[in-house]
Amino acid sequence: MVEAQVEPTQGWQRVGLAALVALSVVGVALTVPTAGGTAPGARANDGTMTLAAAAEQRKFELGVPHDDALLAPHDHNDPATKNDVARGLAVGDDLGAAVDPTSAAERRAAASYVDGERALPDPRLVPTAAYPARTPAPADRFAMAGGCYALSGGGGTFGPYYFKATRLGGYLLHTAEGELTRNGNGSVEIAAKPGPAADWTVSGGPGAFTFQIDGAGALVAQGRTLTTGPAATPFQLRLVGGCPAYPEADINVSGEPFGGAAPYQEVRGFVDAHTHGMAFEFLGGKVHCGRPWHEYGAPYALEDCADHKLTGGKGALLESVLSGKPSHDPVGWPTFKDWPAPESLTHEGTYYRWLERAWRGGQRLFVNLLVENNKLCQLYPLKRNSCDDMTSIRLQAKDMRVMQDYIDAQFGGPGKGFYRIVQDPFEARRVINAGKMAVVMGIETSIPFGCTYKTVLGRDFPACSAAEIDANLDEMQALGVRQMELVNKFDNALAGVAGDAGAIGPLVNAANFLETGTFWAMEHCEPADGESADNAQITLPDISAGQQDALFGALGKVLGILPALPLYPQPAHCNRRGLTDLGVHTIEGLAKRRMVFDPDHLSVKARAASMDVIEDLGYAGVISSHSWSTPDTYPRIYRSGGFITPYAGDSTGFVEKWRRHLGWADSRYYFGFGFGADINGLGAQGNPRGAGVPNPVRYPFVGLGGVTVDKQRAGQRVWDINTDGVAQYGLYPDWVEDLRQVAEAQQRGDGAKIVDDMARGAEAYLQMWERAYGVRPDSCRNPGLRMSLAKAKKLGKRMVRKRMTTDRVIAKVGQPYLRLDKRFTFCAQAKKVKKNGKKTKRTVKVTVVVKLRPNGTVKKVRFRR
After folding, report:
1. How many other C-beta atoms are found inside a 10 Å radius of the C-beta of residue 698?
2. How many other CB atoms sit within 10 Å of the CB of residue 2?
3. Partner residues linked to 84 by β-bridges
4. Considering the chain, what percentage of its residues have pLDDT values greater than 90?
5. Calpha distance 68→73 (Å, rounded)
6. Which of 106, 429, 503, 524 is most buried by a 10 A CB count?
7. DSSP annotation of 361
């Protein structure tokens, strides 16, 4: 999750946000603990930033606990930063060490290695059906979803009705005039709008389907009239024509989605490792407008917030501050005049049909991060949900499964939808090769497991213990969580954060104070590479940009709530707070449970320490998911066997990130590339390059797997990546095509290269995840892991005899070098033999090909020198 920044010239927005924050904190200030006493001479540890004398004096006067902790800001909506290689910068205690550790020669070798990876043979892809084939009569109570049917029973025939699934086995029976609805008196008529009285539950089977309004009566045919009563009429359903389409967002992708020729082969597809699909619940459930699904479809899911509609889009202060626009058209469906849009950060971007378009366009792996920030939730005056981080996380996890069921309902039954929540990399591989999208559940929250802390007179008092962390990790693992960050916006009992910059920084810093009793502990630092530092804060000489901070501090003092916000020295800034012992314990707990650790948002000091822990553990389950790490860390992640998906941002900026990451690739591991959209996380999306560029995306274009992608339509709106940018999630296939155009214009041949690397992204994520499960890296890229030829032959015979499964083979031998259709390729080694038959000390590589049956068991093993 990110917070957005506006340009310093938007003075009214800065003042408005400051006023809103200052007034909002009244309701939560009473929760700040107070110290029993303070001494005027009390000071923080040496080396910390000293707050302004007046601010410190005011803290003593108020009796508020103090610690010289400040926090460095960072913002993803700022055009100057959202395309950076690192959205947060980094330093440790040794500033000279916080640099990109790779040499120019190493970077050239890494890029050359990736060129070789692209030359490897591709897995065989096969078309799979997007939707089940429709039969003249539905086979079960789920199969009529999206179909047009006439009902026959009780001596009459009725309809036709379009069956709009509201849930598994539940439907609206839609006509041109509206929905078949039960009235309060038991009669049945067509109502203009859907509602509970139009949501029919279907039971039974072919030839004897019954319809029931839950708790109100069953559908009954009396001659040529429909009514309701206690005894349901069994109906036959017959596929017909003539139904009007239910209002819904289009996909505009033709051609069947691709899957693999075998369930265990290498996968192809794009990966987004950082998105917030359930953000409609976070910050109290009233900040985010719209939701990713609704029982009654797009017209009800894609509505603006009530407070936005009430003022005609002119009173949406948070949206205005984040977007930089004073007002917006509050109408969503069907016109979508002002939203969704790249800079509209409080509106829904992951409606399920937009996810479906991304899947149809080639995406095969999607990490949904459950997100919350309790103090920012408390600051916002409107809410319907709990602000507790973990309560919100549990609610969002439940929502993911409800949405999975809803999508299944649209596709004809349980397990048939494209959106599949997976538990491990092996299940994910099967899902992707079946032509669907694997969905990984993760966490990005500011206070995970309640692990906040309070600082009293410079001493931390954590609110959690190691045992409580373990219990929470066990609960989250059982819930389905498989990827996690330690921090988001606030310092907590686990680690310090990188902070947020710009206009939003003072808000988050103030909330950090309310949460912990301290501001961010930012101090001046001078990273040797000029870029590995935490986010720069607004400083005293920055008069124009500091007006908001001054106003906030002044209002806070007038209201008697807070001291003035701290005054920071000139950048670069680094957070003094690093990784705590509880943070180390949490990382070790993630590794023990094979959960993927994401060091994003940590302070440079904490992130460097976290990578020390990862390296000491020899753990490969590590990912930087959205560019909140730094150049000193990226090579360490690759060397650990991890994976990186930079923040998507603008297409031109992303191409530059891709080029730089090529120089960090590690030749011991499979290389693929992905992106972190951070959509719905208050992270701005990619802006358009403009229709007048010489190399625009030309519609329709051929997407991954040979599908044809045209401009997407929803209601009256048609989106074009050239002029609209990534307005919503369904435009990510278009964005990948834009990457192709940008890279190709820069260097002939690079368009195909970047798309190839992106298409290998899902496989690279799965291989990282497999290594987190203890599967060894492949023995062809890693000569030191090759077994002797004699041992390999002995194991090969055992594989054939016992008909080992692919999972068992990988557990015994490690990751295959190639996974093509029904063949795995590994490497062994043998002594080099001279012409006279004598063996030498030198070894040669032996290629081992394991041939598999369709069910994934070993059929034969062949050896080739």
Report:
1. 9
2. 27
3. none
4. 73
5. 16
6. 503
7. T
Sorted by sequence, the CB contacts under 8 Å of residue 82 that are 6+ apart come out as 75, 76, 647, 649, 650, 653, 683, 684
pLDDT tens figures, 573-601: 899 999 999 999 999 999 999 999 999 99
Distance CA 356, CA 162 (A): 21
- Other C-beta atoms within 10 Å of 862: how many? 11
Q: 3-class SS at 336?
A: coil
- Asked whether residue 190 carries a pLDDT value surpassing 60, the answer given is yes
723-776 residue pLDDT tens: 999 999 999 999 999 999 999 999 999 999 999 999 999 999 999 999 999 999
CA-based R_g, the chain, Å? 29
Taking the alpha carbons at both ends of the chain, their separation in whole angstroms is 51
Q: Which residues, in sequence order, are bridge partners of residue 260?
A: 125
Task: Look at residue 92 and tell me whether its pLDDT is greater than 60.
Answer: no
Query: 70 vs 39, 433, 457, 500, 536, CA distance in Å?
Result: 21, 48, 15, 11, 11
Alpha carbon 253 to its chain centroid, in Å, reads 23
Cβ–Cβ under 8 Å, residues 568 and 453 = no
**Residue spans of beta strands (DSSP E) within 435-577:** 437-445, 453-456, 459-462, 481-485, 522-524, 573-575
Q: Is 682 helix (H, G, I), strand (E, B) or coil?
A: coil
Q: Are 611 and 623 in contact (CB under 8 A)?
A: no
Identify the residue with better confidence: 326 or 586: 586
Q: Which single residue is written with the structure tokens 């992905």? A: 674
Decide if 453 contacts 461 (C-beta within 8 A).
yes
The CA distance from 164 to 171, in Å, is 5
Cα separation, 604 vs 593, whole angstroms: 25
Per-residue pLDDT band at 825 (split at 50, 70, 90) = very high
DSSP 749: T
Neighbour count for residue 450 (Cβ, 10 Å): 17
Q: Are 619 and 772 within 8 A, CB to CB? A: yes
Strands (E), 576-687: 596-598, 623-624, 643-644
Q: Report which residue type is found at 664.
A: W
Question: What average pLDDT does this structure show over 162-178?
Answer: 98
Per-residue burial over 760-773, b = 16 or more CB atoms within 10 Å of its CB, e = otherwise: bbbbbbbbbbbbbe
Residue 344 φ/ψ, nearest 5 degrees = -90, 100
DSSP 399-440: HHHHHHHHHHHHHTSTT-SSEEE-SSHHHHHHHHHTT-EEEE
E-assigned strand segments in 691-813: 701-702, 708-709, 712-714, 717-719
> Which among 72, 15, 165, 57 is positioned nearest to 574, based on CA atoms?
72
Tell whether the model's pLDDT for residue 32 goes beyond 70.
no
DSSP H or E stretch at residue 848: strand 839-852
How many angstroms separate the CA atoms of 760 and 754, rounded?
10
Q: Show the CA angle centred on residue 42, arms to residues 38 and 46, nearest 5°.
A: 150
Which distant-in-sequence residues (6+ apart) come within 8 Å of 537 by Cβ? 70, 71, 72, 73, 499, 501, 505, 509, 520, 522, 568, 571, 573
> Where does residue 770 fall: left (phi above 0), alpha (psi -120 to 50 degrees), or beta otherwise?
alpha
Query: Can you give the length of the chain in residues?
Result: 865
